[in-house]
Task: inverse folding
């Protein structure tokens, strides 16, 4: 939430549009990671990220600098991801990340291994969520945007956004439960602990 | 219905994902170089290394922002004066129908594809695993995501995944070839050589009459014809396009070309 807390303050100043270069340098990773979450396969992410920035470049003159930039970028990435996925050979839902090596790790690496495993597992879990729901899920849960902003970014009514989030949550929890059951390594023990803590 | 559901019990997964590492620096460098070449100096990406200036109201997600704010403002102006319409027209094919930021946003909602659309079955010779992608060639050979195969492919499900993987190498090779031809058309159009663009699109039509990128070819042909002032042919071809691809995302591009 902290990243967006500054938005209101920023609105009070006359805002100039960010330059293309600025967006490219600062938001490249955001676009990159967003595309992966939206199901773009690893070997295609670079290409798709470039595509996003080509579109960003052409749409930048129309960008309302008073709006937060990430929902706008997300909207573009989302549309491209829709197109990407509609191509038959990209339809596989399996998320392909570099496998996380669970062996031969020093205990000090355990923490980062756990995070990496957690990310991989989350990525697997969200790939099963239908895309329009997943978009809301990502914006709400991972990007931590307020629902009004999400609804605006995706151009859907707020109620629709809420109901998609709810459905996405259900899908996500089912998938995460199933995937966690198959896990090995440090994440499994931690997961059991944390899930029970969260449920309490 | 308007209440945000309580946090999921898998919050720790979400937190891990929020701290996902940044994109690899070499990937960004590669993208920077390609975009600089593609978009020209107005994009402000050329030759300045990694730096970016902090900008009020926009929080940099990366920690790597440090440079001259004045230069950036100047670059912003440059980027904006670039003829957006032209860029959109030419690159819409490469990405998306940019003309209607608002409308296009809604359209995928409706068009999100749940139905598997397998590629047309292509027989794979066992000796031809000329799998084209390595990490360096990935961006050069990576295909533009296009769904033009869809109207030609019979809708079916079930074995979709299997057939997709099986025919992938051949499919990729064809797609790369198609893309190469259309890339010629696109760059010809971009530098104002409409005749060259039309020739390239005719080449594509000859070699891949029912190609995976025929939708894009037709758009380029319409654009080329319009640019050549052959407006009757352009609008005839556009009409045919509308019949063949009534739901095309590229329809606004075709319409724009006619005006």
Result:
């Amino acid at each position: 939430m902290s990243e967006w807390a500054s938005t209101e303050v920023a609105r009070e100043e006359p805002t100039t549009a960010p330059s293309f270069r600025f967006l490219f340098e600062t938001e490249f990773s955001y676009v990159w990671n967003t595309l992966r979450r939206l199901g773009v396969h690893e070997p295609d992410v670079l290409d798709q990220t470039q595509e996003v920035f080509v579109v960003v470049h052409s749409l930048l003159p129309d960008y309302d600098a008073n709006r937060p930039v990430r929902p706008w970028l997300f909207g573009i990435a989302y549309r491209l991801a829709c197109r990407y996925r509609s191509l038959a050979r990209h339809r596989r839902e399996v998320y392909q990340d570099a496998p996380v090596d669970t062996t031969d790790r020093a205990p000090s690496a355990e923490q980062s291994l756990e995070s990496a495993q957690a990310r991989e597992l989350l990525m697997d879990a969200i790939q099963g969520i239908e895309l329009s729901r997943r978009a809301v899920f990502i914006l709400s849960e991972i990007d931590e945007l307020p629902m009004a902003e999400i609804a605006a970014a995706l151009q859907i009514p707020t109620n629709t956004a809420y109901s998609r989030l709810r459905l996405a949550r259900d899908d996500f929890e089912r998938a995460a439960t199933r995937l966690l059951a198959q896990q090995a390594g440090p994440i499994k023990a931690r997961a059991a602990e944390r899930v029970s803590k969260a449920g309490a | 219905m308007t209440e945000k559901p309580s946090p999921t019990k898998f919050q720790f997964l979400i937190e891990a994902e929020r701290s996902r590492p940044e994109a690899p620096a070499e990937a960004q460098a590669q993208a920077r170089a390609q975009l600089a070449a593609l978009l020209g100096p107005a994009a402000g990406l050329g030759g300045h290394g990694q730096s970016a200036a902090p900008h009020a109201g926009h929080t940099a997600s990366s920690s790597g922002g440090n440079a001259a704010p004045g230069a950036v403002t100047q670059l912003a102006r440059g980027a904006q004066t670039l003829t957006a319409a032209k860029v959109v027209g030419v690159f819409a094919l490469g990405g998306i129908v940019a003309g209607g930021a608002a409308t296009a946003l809604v359209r995928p909602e409706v068009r999100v594809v749940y139905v598997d659309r397998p590629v047309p079955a292509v027989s794979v010779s066992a000796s031809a695993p000329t799998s084209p992608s390595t990490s360096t060639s990935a961006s050069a050979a990576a295909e533009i995501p296009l769904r033009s195969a869809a109207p030609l492919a019979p809708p079916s499900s079930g074995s979709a995944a299997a057939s997709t993987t099986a025919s992938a190498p051949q499919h990729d090779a064809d797609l790369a070839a198609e893309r190469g031809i259309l890339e010629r058309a696109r760059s010809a159009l971009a530098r104002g050589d409409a005749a060259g663009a039309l020739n390239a699109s005719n080449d594509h039509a000859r070699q891949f009459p029912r190609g995976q990128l025929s939708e894009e070819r037709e758009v380029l042909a319409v654009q080329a014809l319009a640019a050549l002032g052959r407006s009757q042919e352009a609008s005839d071809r556009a009409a045919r396009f509308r019949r063949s691809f009534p739901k095309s995302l590229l329809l606004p591009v075709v319409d724009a070309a006619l005006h």
About this structure: The first helix of chain B runs from residue 11 to 18. The radius of gyration of chain B is 22 Å.
